[in-house]
Amino acid sequence: MADDAFFHPAGTAEAQGHEYEVFDPTPATASVWADTMQHGAPPAALMVRSMEKLVGAGARVSRVTIDLLGVVPITRSRVRAWTVRPGRTISLLAAEMDCVDANGEYRTVARAQAWVLAASDTAAIARDRSPALPPAGAEQGVMPGFFSHLQDQGFLAACDWRFVDHPDGPDGPKQCWIRARMPLVAGEAPSPLVQVFSVVDAANGVSAYLDPTAVTWMNMDMTVHLHRSPQPVDGWVGILGDQLVGGEGIGTTVSRLYDGAGAFAVGAQTLLVAAR
User: Fold this and answer.
1) According to the model, what pLDDT value does residue 167 have?
2) How far apart are CA 24 and CA 215, in angstroms?
3) How many Å apart are CA 98 and CA 18, to the nearest integer?
4) DSSP for 71-94, written as a single string
5) Beta carbons of 34 and 26 less than 8 angstroms apart
6) Dihedral sign (CA 159, 162, 164, 169)
7) Which one of 12, 40, 109, 238 is at 20 to 30 Å from 50 when CA atoms are compared?
8) Bridge-partner residues for 226, per DSSP?
């Protein structure tokens, strides 16, 4: 299947009393860990796309949590979203993604939730003291020193990467601008929020200081708190991220997310860290 999008729509289906949208993932969704599993970003974005359809006028998504329940295979996938808690000022949405397993049956591989809040004018008291993210460098790059041999494959090849030199040097927090080269769903222009979630899981790799030949680190979740609506310029999303790793095999990737106007969100990802 052509890599002109992360997913191709394949109609709708009903199962167990629920209606799903059905998709076929392309090789552009492939993870750096294995070419048979999806990177975390495309499934996250597909569930966000589904939940965003339920957001009413005058409301904004304030927090999204993604839980990856296991390996997300590059097989036919289906997604549905629903309202968990309706409300005029606060509501909670949920979504889940199923993929066809080795037995030809659908298995739930990921779930998501989103808090949605009523928007109001707080411009007079707005404050954000996030550090500025410098402009991107001119050179294309893919996590220098990490996964460079995979830069022409899967998700890495499906995105443009522009790194920023940081005064703390290679061991300090990483700074990068990233955008998807293709839409999430073929034939469909992604919303600003979908553009963000199409790449935000990459913070786990952008922020890495660990050597993947000696250590594995994999996230099974992603939480993003948005304090304003994102507006990526030409699809570019900035990431300022760092990894916090303890001595018991557990770590956290922390990140700030940027568009052309500055920071709009903070993110966190839980890491399972293990020696090879």
Assistant:
1) 47
2) 32
3) 12
4) --BSS-EEEEEEEEE--SSEEEEE
5) no
6) positive
7) 238
8) 265
Report the phi/psi class of residue 98: left, alpha or beta, with left for phi > 0 and alpha for psi in -120 to 50: beta
DSSP code of 123?
G
pLDDT confidence of residue 174: 81
Q: With contact defined as beta carbons under 8 Å apart, do 101 and 77 qualify?
A: no
Closest-CA residue to 76 (of 161, 122, 160, 13): 13
Taking the C-alpha atoms of residue 61 and residue 228, their distance in angstroms, rounded to an integer, is: 9
Rounded Cα distance, 186 and 23, in Å: 10
* Segment-wise mean pLDDT, segments of 10 residues, the chain, 276 residues: 86 95 96 88 97 96 97 97 97 98 96 97 94 80 55 83 67 83 96 97 85 85 97 95 93 96 97 92
- Cα Rg of the chain, angstroms: 18
Q: What integer pLDDT is reported at residue 269 of this predicted model?
A: 97
Task: Provide the token pair at 183.
Answer: 């839409």
- Which pLDDT belongs to residue 35? 85
Q: Contact, 19 vs 11, CB < 8 A?
A: no
Collect all residues with Cβ–Cβ distance below 8 Å to 215 and sequence separation of at least 6: 273, 274, 275, 276
Closest-CA residue to 159 (of 44, 263, 236, 262): 236
Instruction: Please give the backbone phi and psi of residue 7, each rounded to the nearest 5 degrees, phi first.
Output: -140, 145
The secondary structure element, H or E, covering residue 157 is helix 154-157
In this predicted structure, what is the pLDDT of residue 90? 98
Query: Burial level of 223, CB count in 10 A (0-12/13-18/19+)?
Result: middle
Query: What is the distance between the alpha carbons of residues 36 and 145, in angstroms, rounded to a whole number?
Result: 23
CA distance 228 to 243: 24
